[in-house]
């Protein structure tokens, strides 16, 4: 039995609109809410929609706070491929959110363990995440929690799988430039969010969507743990839903 609320949208643009509806309701109900945010191609239609909606006066980000899922190890926030840069370019620079109220793991941290522990404390101090946005990797990763023999609990450093580096190399000049490690919220960090919203679009995500939400819960498919969350909405387009219809 499926324990997630599954919505099938026509295309990525409609996924973005439906996701924006959910964000809009949460921000309007709690103007200083904490948004857990994600990078990647999948959230872009949502971010564009949110920018438009604030311009149209339907949503206001001036008191909103945010915590991002992950960051490459070794990249500074002004590196064009860093996730901090991605968030500035694709969302923060275009909405009224105060940059001081947005956190992303520090890719240049000298003491990785201390930075990760401090990141958990910052999220706690914010009062926890109200809605955590997620994409999904072809291997079922959420954030940079890759398939492994257990579910990592808190924010931690990870070695990146080749499949993930390959998938992300399109943003770099070559695969050699793709960092080999990253920092990510743990599965426990994600599961502590009051609500989770996972988006998946495209035919290439159809198999992993099926495995994650219609297969067994296993750390070999990290997203499958979301079946145990209790307040998860999954919005997929028709292509990503093609194996579950
Ligand atoms: P994508 O990445 O949105 O670029 O497909 C998703 C992910 O790897 O989590």
Mean pLDDT: 96
Radius of gyration: 17 Å
Low-confidence spans: none
Order of helices and strands: EHEHEEHEHEEHEHEHE
Distance between the termini: 15 Å
Report the major sheet: 7 strands, parallel
Bound small molecules, by name, code or SMILES, are: 2-phosphoglycolic acid
Explain the overall architecture:
There is one protein chain. The protein has 245 residues and is an alpha/beta fold. It is built from 7 helices and 10 strands. 30% of the residues lie in helices and 17% in strands. α1 (12-29) crosses α2 (44-55). The radius of gyration is 17 Å and the shape is globular. The relative contact order is 0.18. The model has no long low-confidence stretch (mean pLDDT 96). Bound molecules: 2-phosphoglycolic acid. 2-phosphoglycolic acid is lined by residues 40-42, 135-137.
Name the descriptors:
7 helices, alpha/beta, single chain, 245 residues, globular, 3-stranded antiparallel beta sheet
Summarize the structure in short.
The chain has 245 residues and is an alpha/beta fold. 30% of the residues lie in helices and 17% in strands.
What is the fold's blueprint, element by element?
Blueprint: E1 5-9, H1 12-29, E2 34-37, H2 44-55, E3 65-68, E4 70-72, H3 83-90, E5 102-103, H4 112-125, E6 131-134, E7 156-159, H5 162-168, E8 181-184, H6 187-191, E9 195-200, H7 206-214, E10 232-237
Parallel strand pairs: 1-10, 2-3, 2-6, 3-5, 6-9, 9-10
Antiparallel strand pairs: 4-8, 7-8
Helix pairs in contact: 1-2
The chain binds 2-phosphoglycolic acid.
2-phosphoglycolic acid (PGA) binds at residues 40-42, 135-137.
